[in-house]
Description:
- By secondary structure, chain A is of the alpha+beta class.
- Chain A has helices at 10-19, 33-38, 74-79, 81-86, 88-95, 100-103, 108-112, 125-131, 158-165, 266-276, 287-305; strands at residues 3-5, 24-27, 46-49, 59-62, 65-69, 169-174, 177-182, 201-208, 214-220, 231-237, 242-248, 255-260.
- A five-stranded antiparallel sheet of chain A has the order 4-5-8-6-7. A four-stranded antiparallel sheet of chain A has the order 9-10-11-12, sandwiched between helices. A three-stranded parallel sheet of chain A has the order 1-3-2, covered by helices on one side.
- In chain A, strand 10 (231-237) and strand 11 (242-248) form a beta hairpin.
- The relative contact order of chain A is 0.13.
- Chains B and C meet through helix 1 and helix 17 of B and helix 2, helix 3 and helix 5 of C.
Amino acid sequence: MGYYHTPSSIEDALSIADKYNDNYTFFAGGTDIQIYRKQKLDLNEHIIDLSLINNINTISMKNGTLSLGAMATLDEIFVSKKIQNNFPLIAKSVNSVATPVLRKTATIGGNLLVKNRCTFYNQSKGWRDSIGSCLRDVGDICQVTGGKDDCYARNVSDAATALIALNAKAVLTSLNGVEHRLVKDLYLPCGIKSHNLSKGTILTQIHLSLSPVKWWYKKLRLRKTLDFTSLTVAATVNKTGIVRVCLNGASMSPILIKESLDLLTLELLIKQARKHCKAVDNDLMPLKYRKQMINVFLEECWETISQKDTRTQSSK
Amino acid sequence: MKGPIGRRTPFIDAIDKATGQAMYTDDYKFPNMLFVRFLRSTKSHAKIKSLDITEAESYPGVVAIATGEDLPISFGVLPTSPDETAMAVKKVRYQGEIVAAVAAETIESAQLGVEKIKIEYESITEFITPQDSLHKCEPDEQIHPHTKNNKNIHKIAELRFNEPEKEIKSASHIQTGKFKFAGVTHAFTEPHSTLAIWNRDETLTVISATQVPHYLHINLSKVLELPLHKIQVKKPSLGGGFGGKSDPFPHEMITSFLAIKTKRPVKCTFSREEVFITHHGRHPTEMSMSISCDDDGKLTALDTDIIIDGGAYGSFGVVTSYYNGVLLQGPYKIDKFGFRTQRAYTNKHQCGAMRGHGAVNPRYAVETLLDMMAYDLKIDPCELRERNFLPENSFTVGEFRITSNGIRDCINTVREKSDWDKKYGKLPFGSGLGVACGFFISGSALPILWNRYPQTVVHAKLDFDGRVVIFSGASDIGQGSDTMLVQIAAEELGIPMEYVQVEVADTKITPVDLGSYSSRVTFMVGNATKTATSNLRNEIAIAIAKEKNVSVNDLYFEDCRVITKNKSVDLSWMEAVEIAMAGRGAFLESGFYISPKLGGKFKGAGAGLSPAYSFGAFISEVNVHPKTGEVNVVKVWGAHDCGKALNPLSVEGQIEGSIHMGLGQAVSEEMWYKNGQQMNANFLDYRIPYSVDTPDMDITIIESNDPEGPYGAKEAGEGPIHPVLPSIGNAVYDAVGVRMMELPITPDKVLKKLKEKV
Amino acid sequence: MSLIQTKLTVNGYTHSLLVNADETLLFTLREQLYLTGTKEGCNQGSCGSCTVLINGKPVLSCMTPTLRCANKKITTIEGISGGETLHLVQKYLVSDGGLQCGFCTPGVVMTAVPYLEENPDVNRKEIKESLSGNLCRCTGYKKIIDAVENASKEMKK
């Protein structure tokens, strides 16, 4: 039912991808995509396993800039002293993903590009056959809203939330060359096509240099392990007083609110978040509760970031 | 006790399990074996208009296909409701019901074969909620033709004693509540699995992950129309049951049928999603309940009206219906008592028996109302309960015979250990303590199938090698019953455990035992094993007494020797064995257990009768986040009266496991449906607590030494779950002042209540 | 369907196998090599019953393509204890009642063994956290954590 490719370089991976056009799937850690394969949601014939490629799993610091290889596992990032000392927000976020053993396989690149989720889509083939397929699958309506145009599947990347709050950049490599793009600009407000990487592009590195003076992170989930997020909020304040608050798990793409601390109020923060959040009832947690938690999280977040004194943290 | 009874004893199969050598059903492989996959219904309620298997039959690798018409004889665990067929016949009643089965050379070709089957449905009105099912419908819309008055009500169970409704109208103190409970499922880690072999001598061997080889044996015989003596059911190592493997299942019938049809070994193992679909878990339940008491806090009456959502088939539902009511007769003395339970058929996965069968949800209601009563009367909740406990050696209003009863020790223990008097009502807002009690049967005194046989028989065989083999139909499902058999034999014969081995749960070799359900095994099989092995001891003693010219009563069996006090006889075990076997060879002694005659003469008097009842009291401490509504259970103190802990290690394990499972139902687990379709049929979305979600536990075993239990033992596997849930609910009230009348207590529900309160 | 030739080194022995692209290591171990100690509880990465080691690192074999494992050293539960001698984690799981039905146990062992090897100095809370991907429905986890804690103490001696 398919072909398994294990390229040893980015160039090889890209040329294999190029050869098979739209009929391939990149495997990073594979912990997310593997389930899509099993559920027949990913039917591409060619699997291109990126795990044997050298030099894209390193974690390094140079002149205050952190470089994360996209194939670095969440666990490697968490245990890295460089990260724990300089970027505790990243450590906190990656450690809130999945379970300890999964974090030893799951990669930061994979988490950033994790597929959007919906309770009506992430199901077995037999299940989907029962309910009638949705527009993200082979059907023509959204099972949540009944609409025919938009898919509201949620972006559930916890790492993206933190990295966007830290103003991180992604390095994208394709046969056309290397491109640097802000992580926040990778995403599209669409449940189906959740990111705008063109075919034949591999996310290879993440760079960041922002060392915030204050930060805050919290993930909403019922259990303290395994669960995908129902709402993740990450926030930073930099030396010049610029606040970056990122919300994810609520809407089709991460929501970034960036403002000077002098101009920002809690009310404004909540208003902005609510304005950009297109939440529908497609999660295990009820919609109303998730919306309430946006306020609660932002209130708690605001308490930290609006303080004048030293850096603090809070987390779930 | 000089032997292993009462000692912390690792399970005899623990090393096999810890090294991966233990064989579970799916670990067996036979030459030339086929694999089964199923076509399952995509509709909740529909007629099968057409079913075309021709293309599937010729698909490469497909060897045989079975459909509903092949096995039309209905079956069910209870003889009162054999309402299920192996595969849907003419219509389907829930999404996921098996319609056809494909046996093929590989799992993959079986699955691809399934996908080639063509089926057309014609939808029928769906009954998704139990309320839908209480209304009249057109006859051809009924889920089952046998329900009365054109409604989809499976069973109404009702008992009333001394007009509780009158008392509740006039009593000075009344508490009333409406409660709602989501369904939950067993979620054992080993998926269902069955392997069937058609032997050359035209007998059928079925290896299956079942808690009840005996009922499977009987139902296989019925459905396959094969004489009982031609069927052998064996249970290998089993990865958890909790009630969820205690029905005979369609896949067991189908796999066996396909083995007979193809004359090849056939194996079927479920995916996790199929395990959820198969369900048979705790019924979603709605109830209104009232209790009343006098000015001293003495309970005077309890009355409750309950609707349970049975799903598409009967399973244990008739028993569940009764248990919802009758198991509220303890641990408190209530003289005016009544209940009515209606079990509705709906077009969803069927519900059945799950740990704490039938009584977990109404127990939550009782204990919550008691807490409300205590609060209103300004009586400490522990104190209020103490004023109402049934005494030992008494009878309940419905004529349950209470023998040993350690409930007072239980509540005193947890009260003291949790520092209740200093903490209850005094912790800062957001933290709280809650208490609850419970009780449960140690085996049902009445068998499911009425017959003149004992409830269990155990054989103990002695052979020249000095080994004692215990033959028992008891099913070790992970609770450690095999170890219990060995402990008892070693205790009775004064020999080390390694001299004792077991042959268990094999209907060809082992005498009938009714199975591992209703917490019956330690009490009933334990007693039978004790009898069998003490008979064996007696036989040995008689032979030695004759040869050595001493009295049988002067012989002691201990430390692997047989001695008299004055050492005139001082034999090693092997010497004793040789004397006992001289002139006769290996021999076998038998023991059995029959429950004493119990209970009243009224209709329904048999439900909940047991030779002994366990008791327990639990206290939970919780933190509730006032802004998010999140409930964090910090610690649970549990004290359980199991009569006598034959193996304290496993009794503790049962109580700790009950806390975990009770916690799950209390705060996070839910069979979540939309329009009859389960939304969370996997471990990611059906949210069972993991290690980090599970609280600290402090367990105390209370030993009341039951007069009829083996060495005084009663049950410990199910009773401990009952108090867990309401102790958490009551703790939430102590923490933030809101009454949670709906389970699971998820953050959204807590927050809603908190907002209503303001 | 195309089968691909690969070499798989499991518990020290190298097998030559034909596998397909979507075949998981769990399937290969159980169905091709008949190493049934590794259990399938969910086949979806949620329960931890299928945990094995690849080059000493724990992974969920249900999420791992077999073809990713070529030239790597795989250790399964069968490779943990050499015949008679139990690993300390196994020893204490047995003696402390850290298993009941036993179905999750191989996964617990394969998670705890590398964890203790990598983290010789751990407290109870850390052990609890390290096992937070292993679903056990029987024990309530307490005695599993007891066992791993006791194993850790003895390993330090």
